[in-house]
Design goal:
It is built from six helices and three strands. 61% of the residues lie in helices and 15% in strands. Strands 2-1-3 form a three-stranded antiparallel β-sheet, covered by helices on one side. The chain is rod-shaped and about 80 Å long. It has two domains: 5-50, no CATH class; 56-121, Ribosomal Protein L30, Chain: A (2-Layer Sandwich).
Length: 122
């Protein structure tokens, strides 16, 4: 059986919206497909692009048991004074640095985790 594409297209042009909706549902049921799949794929592609961030915020979420070492690490990383570094460690969660590269963020994270801190990269 040969399909006449021109006749099918002409029939689709003459069909009402309700008839086309019924046709789409029938095709979905018959072949086990979804007309919404391309939209979901586009959303997944957008999620992949989001993972490729170029700048990160380093957030100290917990200071750990070794607060003095954490304060020293914060002073070294940020260049803040003792009072400001202590306030940052005492008032967790707090942003240590904003807008840093991935490599720098990973380096800062490892330094803070070495002294018992819990760090989140955002």
């Amino acid at each position: 059986m040969a399909l006449d594409k021109d006749k099918i297209i002409a029939d689709l042009k003459d069909a009402s919206i309700l008839e086309l909706n019924d046709l789409v549902k029938a095709i979905e049921d018959e072949f086990g497909v979804s007309a919404a799949a391309p939209v979901a794929a586009a959303g997944a592609a957008g999620g992949a692009a989001e993972e490729e961030k170029t700048s990160f915020d380093v957030e100290l979420t917990e200071s750990g048991d070794q607060k003095i070492k954490a304060i020293k690490a914060i002073r070294e990383i940020t260049g803040l004074g003792l009072k400001d570094s202590k306030a940052l460690v005492d008032n967790v969660p707090s942003i240590v640095k904003e807008g840093v590269s991935k490599d720098e963020a990973e380096d800062l994270k490892s330094k803070l985790e070495a002294v018992g801190g819990v760090v989140t990269l955002k």
